[in-house]
Model the fold of this input.
Amino acid sequence: MGKELISAREELSKTKDGAMWVAMIDVCMLLNFSEIARSYFKKSGDWFNQRLHGFRVNGKPAKFKKNELQVLSAALRDIASKVLVAAEKVDAMIED
Done:
């Protein structure tokens, strides 16, 4: 990673919003945010991205509400659990 990128990540991580954004960037290539929005929030992918990136909606930056952050946290844990189960099934095939 370039020095400028590391510095930007450190600077963003100083705020709660920035730290969450950095965390989501770390996994964005592995997750389908549109599917998370549909499955866990019953919302569109655009809705999710507006909040993730702080896009202006009705003249104000969109943000996740506290309860939405709790849903997102639970969704990520649910996805992690499903990935672990899949890994265990692959491991079981190796052992056979």
In short: Helices lie at 3-12, 16-27, 33-41, 45-53, 66-95. The radius of gyration is 16 Å. The longest strand covers residues 56-57. Residues 20 and 26 are 10 Å apart (CA to CA).
